[in-house]
Amino acid sequence: MVDTTSCPGATASGSNLNIHGTITYNADGTYSSSDTFSGSVSVHLPASCLTVNGVTVTCDQLNQEFASNPMPGVTFTCSGSSGCTCLETVSGESSSETGTYSVASGVVTDTAMDGTVSQTDYCVHGTTMTQSPHAGSSMMGAVESGTITLTKS
After folding, report:
1. How does residue 139 score in pLDDT terms, banded at 50, 70 and 90?
2. Is the pTM higher than 0.85?
3. 32, 78, 89, 153: which has the fewest Cβ within 10 Å?
4. Neighbouring residues of 131: CB distance < 8 A, sequence distance ≥ 6
């Protein structure tokens, strides 16, 4: 996915985003997850984001870069004249992760093996757990929103 952390003016929005998979929280404080992601994300990069070390790139140059370094199951298309809007479409991108977790005051904190930390507010009712981004949490510099529903099997 396009990383928006190096440009605070960048914005992203998704559509038809689907994540299917499993996450296992073990009693010993470890977790493992495996999922498949598909959908589209539109990223707007203002003109200020397109200049690095005095060199300005165009949307066409971004398209050429994405085409010369393809990622399986991911397509990028950028357009625009003052800044670029890039559509990233993902079909069936899989990922897995392991790490540790802790729970306090309705917040679960996951710490992946690579050191990445994420926090979600959670609620358990019967065999269903819902998670939503904790206030101030972000992924790749973007504020997250939405709810994930997990069902115990």
Report:
1. very low
2. no
3. 153
4. 108, 120, 121, 122, 147, 148, 150
